[in-house]
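hi! just following up on the protien thing from before. the input was this:
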Amino acid sequence: MKKYKLGELLDVTRGASLTGEYYSTEGEFIRLTLGNFDYQNGGFKENTSKDDLFFTGTVKPQFILNEGDIITPLTEQTQGLIGSTARIPQSGVFIQSQDVGLVKCNEELLDPDFCYYLLPSQIVKKQLSAGAQQTKIRHTSPDKIKDVTVFLPELSEQKKIGHILRSIDSQIDNLTAINRNLEQSVEHAYQFMFFSKQRPRLSLKSMESIATIKAGGDCPTKYSRSKTSQYQIPIYSNSIDKDGLYGFAEKAVILEPGITIAARGTIGFCALRTKPYVPIIRLLSVSPHDRGGDIYLYQFFKKVVFEKNGSVQQQLTVPMLSCITIPYPSKEELNKFDKIVRPFIIMQSCNKENIEALQKLRDELLPLLLNGQVQVNCDLSN
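and the predicted 3d structure came back as:
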């Protein structure tokens, strides 16, 4: 292992300053934002939090990125974001903005795949965090990234490490793509069965007549940040569809399949829940009485937009949701729908478990590989 400053191994450049007057809901180029970093799972994600992501102004060619380019955030809107990496998924589409750094490796010393996993490692993140400007929203810079100290194996070993980690990520990406296709299949079945010309007659029913609605409570006092033998029940809060905490609170566990709907903040954000879970504050749980109702309501509420009441903090309550009237199928039609789409939902759940297992494997291997505790024995020529 040899000691380097990152500045000896790579260059980091800041993106363009993009004027807000050219932000648009449509256009040729999409501006990159911090929302494109999946800092929890790693990699690039589509930013769904904004609708004015297109940029219609003039942009210099060097800020229009290519497929495979490595980017890293220079601003930390969410704790843990600095040090994250993502790869650009498509050439000629994405504009590098000033909060995003473009990373270019000296490939005689640093393998790009190895670099992609090195930057989010704890040894780099801790140094970046210590050097970040201590403001409400913390910042780093290209120079501070280049000042980080790292220890590297030989280039041949870097390539092997990068190869095995990227292979794991490739499996994760494939399963994620399969789940997106399964989700689209469920959406198509929903639209065809209930909202096409061949649709059955739908009755208008109040939410309280078709489901049990509850408000989330306080977070259990005992919980774990990862699944253990003692803590297996996921705890869900407002804005993210991710198992962030695990715990058990007997009276609070929802056993029935259903959906959760954000009551504040990202109001209306909904997620399908097929296994027992604990909803906590800022979240409503909806458990339909009929089989198939969970999938139907999930598809329905994904398309509902709740109006915001100006600057007033809006909140969705149990009484408000209970009195909403929606078109709803008969039990017979719901059963037909359920028989068609339930296998897709089960497959999605299995894929999600496999994704989580691969992510855990990758995250456990990463520090061991980077600090030389584990050696990789593979032939990259095959």
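Residues 71 and 102 are 5 Å apart (CA to CA).
The mean pLDDT is 88.
cheers
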